[in-house]
Specification:
Layout: H1 2-8, H2 11-31, H3 36-42, H4 46-64, H5 79-85, H6 89-117, H7 121-150
């Protein structure tokens, strides 16, 4: 039975499950930010724990598939080296899980920070959606909104 489960989770299937798996958390963050379900599920450690499990599983499959982990350190040498790394499905999936995890974590942080500052939740939906799609741009848009609600310009808060 474990062999069947293991063979079911190909890189394509893991990619699909990671993408579908984060959607409920994002829907909670965007549409039900004040709910207890959002507090205990979406903005807790649970989604990061689940995505970390997927990441470790991909690492394990990459290890069994004789992935060259030493080659990972070449990504700092130039953009051509990164494009070489992204040709491998395992590395691409590891990157994607990394990206999705950080965006979800930042979405939870934006929500908690906005709740402290009493930011309008309809206004907050826009930077959250942008954070889901284009992480850093969503954070920047939230930062601009935050300036008006916090009535101060802090670069380190």
């Amino acid at each position: 039975m474990i062999e069947q489960i293991y063979s079911y989770f190909t890189t394509e299937m893991l990619y699909m499950w990671v993408n579908l798996g984060v959607l409920p958390f994002w829907l909670l963050i965007i549409f039900f930010p004040q709910s207890h379900l959002c507090r205990y599920l979406a903005t807790s450690i649970l989604p990061i724990f689940l995505l970390s499990g997927a990441y470790v599983f991909v690492l394990y499959k990459a290890y069994l598939g004789s992935f060259d982990f030493n080659n990972n350190f070449t990504l700092y040498l130039g953009i051509s080296y990164i494009s070489e790394l992204f040709r491998d499905d395992y590395y691409l999936l590891m990157f994607w899980i990394h990206f999705v995890s950080i965006n979800l974590f930042i979405g939870g942080w934006i929500l908690k920070d906005a709740q402290k500052l009493l930011v309008n939740k309809i206004l907050l939906a826009f930077p959250l959606i942008i954070t889901y799609l284009i992480g850093p741009l969503g954070i920047f848009i939230y930062w601009i909104i935050r300036i008006f609600y916090a009535k101060s310009l802090n670069l380190y808060d």
